[in-house]
Design goal:
Layout: H1 2-6, H2 10-14, H3 19-30, H4 39-46, H5 55-73, H6 79-82
């Protein structure tokens, strides 16, 4: 979300004036819920946005897509590090009276 703000996309994300941009940004953020094997395929679908008719907004969405691509898709953060698919949450250990775990 910080990067969306930094790239000047906050207004487009928060208003209904540009629903295509808003939905695309939400879909990109939702990629964290996908299994690792599906992320490259979904990214190819989301990577190239359709034109909004506003060159400034189109440039901002392209800059955001470039950031996601170079940092999260092809960067040093492998998808296995940020995909929450199959994450069951924090492990809770229960200590029994005799000092063993259950």
């Amino acid at each position: 979300m910080r990067r969306i703000q930094r790239d000047g996309l906050r207004a487009a994300y928060e208003t209904d004036e540009t629903p295509d941009v808003r939905h695309r940004l939400r879909r990109i953020m939702a990629m964290t819920t996908l299994p690792v094997f599906a992320i490259p395929t979904v990214w190819q679908l989301l990577r190239w946005p359709s034109s909004t008719g506003d060159p400034s907004l189109d440039g901002k969405t392209a800059a955001f897509a470039a950031y996601v691509d170079r940092t999260w898709i092809n960067g040093s953060f492998h998808a296995a590090l940020w995909s929450h698919f199959d994450n069951l949450g924090p492990v809770q250990l229960i200590w029994l009276r005799d000092g063993t775990m259950d």
